[in-house]
C-alpha cells in the first residue's frame, strides 16, 4: 500500500492532538499511551482498512524535545521498545447486514445489539428517549 506513510502521519497527528488542545497552557503536556484509529478503504476491492496505532509517551516526547537524541536502537528492537505500534485489519463491506458488528470487533467497540443505541452495553437502551410517533397521514 503506497499510502501507508501518509496514514502514519495522520495517526501521529491524531495522537499529538490529544495533548495540544489547550494552546494557552505554558506547561508542557503530560504524555500517556494513546490509541488512535483511522478507517480508510481500498481501491482494489470492497474493503475498509482499519489502522490502529498505540503511541507511547516515550515516542511523543521525542517531538516535544527534538534536540534530545533517542536512546541507542538496534535492528532487532520492536515497536514496544520504539514506542510506536501500528497494526491494520481489512473489513469487507459485504455482507452489509453485519458490517456494523465486524467493524465494531476490529475497532474494539461494543455494538449493544440487545436494544442499545450502538455506543455502549446492551443495558443502556432502557434509558433512551423514545422516538416521536408520526402523526396521521393526511
Question: Which secondary structure elements does this structure contain, and how are they paired or packed?
Answer:
Blueprint: H1 4-17, E1 34-41, E2 47-55, H2 57-64, H3 79-82, E3 84-92, H4 99-107
Antiparallel strand pairs: 1-2, 2-3
Region (Disordered): 112-138
Biased composition (Basic residues): 129-138
Biased composition (Gly residues): 113-123
General description of the model:
- Residues 112-138 are annotated as: Disordered.
- Residues 129-138 have a biased composition (Basic residues).
- Residues 113-123 have a biased composition (Gly residues).
- This protein is an alpha+beta fold.
- It is 25% helix and 19% strand.
- It has four helices and three strands.
- It has helices spanning 4-17, 57-64, 79-82, 99-107, and strands at 34-41, 47-55, 84-92.
- Strands 1-2-3 form a three-stranded antiparallel β-sheet, with helices on both faces.
- The termini are far apart.
Amino acid at each position: 500500500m503506497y499510502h501507508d506513510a501518509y496514514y502514519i502521519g495522520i495517526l501521529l497527528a491524531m495522537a499529538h492532538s490529544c495533548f495540544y488542545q489547550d494552546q494557552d497552557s505554558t506547561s508542557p503536556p503530560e504524555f500517556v499511551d494513546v490509541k488512535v484509529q483511522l478507517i480508510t478503504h481500498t481501491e482494489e476491492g470492497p474493503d475498509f482498512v482499519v489502522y490502529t496505532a498505540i503511541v507511547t509517551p516515550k515516542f511523543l516526547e521525542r517531538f516535544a524535545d527534538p534536540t534530545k537524541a533517542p536512546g541507542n536502537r538496534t535492528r532487532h528492537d520492536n515497536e514496544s521498545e520504539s514506542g510506536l505500534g501500528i497494526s491494520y485489519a481489512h473489513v469487507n463491506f459485504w455482507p452489509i447486514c453485519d458490517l456494523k458488528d465486524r467493524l465494531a470487533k476490529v475497532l474494539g467497540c461494543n455494538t449493544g445489539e440487545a436494544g442499545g443505541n450502538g455506543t455502549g452495553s446492551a443495558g443502556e437502551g432502557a434509558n433512551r428517549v423514545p422516538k416521536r410517533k408520526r402523526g396521521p397521514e393526511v
